[in-house]
UniProtKB/TrEMBL annotation:
The lineage of its organism: Bacteria, Candidatus Uhriibacteriota. It comes from the Bacteria. Residues 273-583 form the Penicillin-binding protein transpeptidase domain. It comes from Candidatus Uhrbacteria bacterium GW2011_GWC2_41_11. SUPFAM superfamilies: beta-lactamase/transpeptidase-like, Penicillin binding protein dimerisation domain. The keyword Cell wall biogenesis/degradation does not apply. This is Peptidoglycan glycosyltransferase. Signal peptide: none annotated.
């Protein structure tokens, strides 16, 4: 069958009859228009999302194009001390902007040349320079840290060198403006093997988490060329800066005390020394110093890491005769003796568990004496008598109640607990020697807290060095006074305080006194056990003085310790004069009027 051209067009004509010629065109135009409007709305919505809702994410993302994941480092909080006289706070640890150098090895063309140039600028040795060259040669590595805390001079040299693939950002570096104010207290901020900063020792170590803050993060998906995938998964969280720590230390007191301690250690050619000063009514630490100290700005320039340990809280030692005040307080509190109880001293006494008699210092004999005389003249046999009068068990309980044998809880790293474990053996020899400060070990801070209990009417408080913590969200954690327990009755505390005044007025503590004031305290010249065991070293002593004043309304408690003075053996000529000098300063600084005619 043959078909004409007309027949061939019939199907087309039938299709066109389904609608008007203009109807199909309108539908297509409307579809295209609707699509264009929808697309425009999507673009507008995306712009709103990018510019307003997710602005912080893209702003952060634009600042670091070399990393798939960039950790946002918070700014470390500051550490402050008080300046009591003008009522201000002084930063003793803060931040200063320095450069952090990093590399994108994918953009490094000559790793050997760049490493050598950086090594010369940063004054690295050959080994460290070659190690960097190896890291820069990895063409698939998008990020390599190079150096932190680069000063401005070296940074400008790096910039001038125009090293391809090398970048930098400015970040806070830790500085300590008040040099000589106490590296042991503040600690320092160091870097671990991965290049992350963290606090070490002192306040920096103890409160590292609070000071560090919370890191933020920036995470995004990228293609093989390192370009942002617009529709990829991404998330952003800003960093939370660290909290500020306000210490209880008084800047003027701290500086004065530390300076005088350094002078005394040098004067007597001593191995070292430490001082703790507490406010007895609150437990606030007003000053804490140790010698030898270190500069937190140059923490790596120490002979060995033991220099970081704070001797006021870490170095336990046999306290010697300053412990006799605790023994006497416990005996009086139990009613076993009173300040006028008589005792006949023959110069030595036999004790169960030891074949030889225990003698007084320099083998002195005092005859019939009172308990007040026992403290005045620091009579070993007299405090053994007082311990025996109350019994070993009450004595041991009192020692523990005063806080010995456990950490005080002060907010610093490396605090030691001391050692009174010999008292749990139950033999009289250990209680007898402990009564005059031998055979047990304590820290200067423990000793200061115990004397503060006497000065505070018999109540032991937990010493603290942090006044408050201020967080970036406005919260303030104010440290309250923390009562541990009542150790002795208030009447006992007053009696023992008066006996300690007698020690300063009539006994071995005369050089600790201050004209016009009643100061109470006790000397102690402690022997040091031989390192290989078997008795004490006859050539080494530790001189201490512990006391407080003014006696009727104590404003300070102080423990002074001088380690192994070479020129003078006795504490009454080393620790006691330093105590008196600082006590005189404190009374004038706090403008405390004299209690009696000068």
């Amino acid at each position: 069958m043959r078909h004409s051209v007309a027949d061939a067009r019939k199907p087309f004509r039938r299709w066109k009859t389904l609608g008007s010629p203009s109807g199909g065109s309108d539908i297509r135009i409307r579809i295209l228009y609707a699509g264009a409007v929808f697309f425009a709305l999507c673009i507008m919505a995306k712009l709103v999302f990018v510019q307003l809702i997710d602005h912080a994410f893209y702003e952060a993302l634009a600042s670091g194009q070399h990393q798939l994941f960039q950790e946002l480092i918070p700014e470390r909080g500051d550490i402050f001390v008080h300046d009591t006289k003008d009522g201000t706070l002084v930063a003793v640890a803060t931040n200063e902007l320095k450069a952090f150098l990093y590399a994108d090895p994918r953009q490094v063309k000559d790793s050997q040349m760049i490493a050598k140039t950086l090594g010369q600028i940063l004054e690295w040795d050959e080994e460290k320079t070659m190690e960097l060259a190896g890291r820069l040669s990895n063409e698939k590595d998008p990020y390599e840290p190079i150096a932190r805390e680069v000063n401005e001079n070296r940074l400008q040299q790096v910039i001038a060198a125009g090293l391809e693939g090398i970048g930098y950002v400015r970040e806070p570096a830790r500085i300590y403006p008040e040099s000589g104010l106490g590296g042991h207290v503040f600690g320092f901020v160091g870097f671990d093997h991965e290049g992350y900063r963290s606090g070490k020792y002192g306040i920096e170590g103890y409160f590292d988490k609070d000071l560090t803050g919370i890191p933020g993060f920036l995470r995004s998906e990228r293609d093989l060329a390192g370009r942002l995938i617009a529709i990829g998964e991404r998330s952003y969280e800003p960093a939370v800066d660290g909290a500020d720590i306000i210490l209880t230390l008084d800047r003027t007191v701290q500086f004065t005390v530390c300076s005088k301690l350094v002078e005394t250690v040098r004067k007597h050619d001593a191995d070292g020394g430490s001082i703790v000063i507490l406010e007895p009514s609150t437990g606030r630490i007003l000053a804490m110093c140790g010698v030898p100290d270190f500069d937190s700005n140059q923490y790596n320039k120490v002979p060995d890491i033991t220099a970081y340990n704070n001797p006021a809280i870490f170095d336990s030692y046999e306290p010697g005769s300053i412990f006799k005040s605790m023994t006497m307080a416990a005996a009086i509190d139990t009613g076993s003796v009173n300040p006028m109880t008589l005792f006949e001293d023959t110069g030595s006494v036999l004790v169960d568990g030891w074949p030889k008699p225990i003698a007084n210092a320099e083998n002195k004999k005092y005859g019939v004496v009172t308990m007040t005389d026992v403290l005045d003249n620091s009579i070993n046999t007299g405090v053994i008598f007082a311990m025996r009068q109350m019994g070993m068990d009450p004595f041991v309980s009192a020692v523990k109640d005063f806080g010995f044998g456990k950490k005080t809880g002060v907010e610093m790293e490396t605090e030691a607990a001391g050692n009174i474990s010999s008292l749990d053996i139950g033999e009289e020899i250990y209680a007898a020697t402990a009564s005059f400060g031998q055979g047990i070990t304590v820290t200067p801070l423990q000793m200061a807290a115990a004397y503060a209990a006497i000065a505070n009417g018999g109540v032991l408080l937990e010493p603290h060095i942090v006044d408050e913590i201020r967080y970036t969200d406005g919260r303030v954690d104010k440290k309250a006074v923390k009562e541990v327990r009542r150790v002795i009755q208030e009447k006992t505390a007053r009696l023992v305080g008066a006996m300690l005044v007698s020690v300063v007025e009539n006994g071995h503590g005369k050089r600790a006194g201050v004209p016009g004031y009643y100061i109470g305290g006790k000397t102690g010249t402690a022997q040091v056990p031989k390192k290989d065991g078997g008795g004490y070293d006859s050539d080494i002593t530790i001189g201490s003085f512990a006391g407080f004043g003014p006696i009727n309304d104590p404003r300070f408690v102080m423990v002074v310790r001088i380690d192994n003075p070479k020129d003078i053996r006795w504490a009454e000529s080393t620790a006691a004069p330093l105590f008196g000098e600082i006590a005189d300063f404190l009374l004038r600084y706090y403008e405390i009027p004299p209690e009696r005619p000068l």
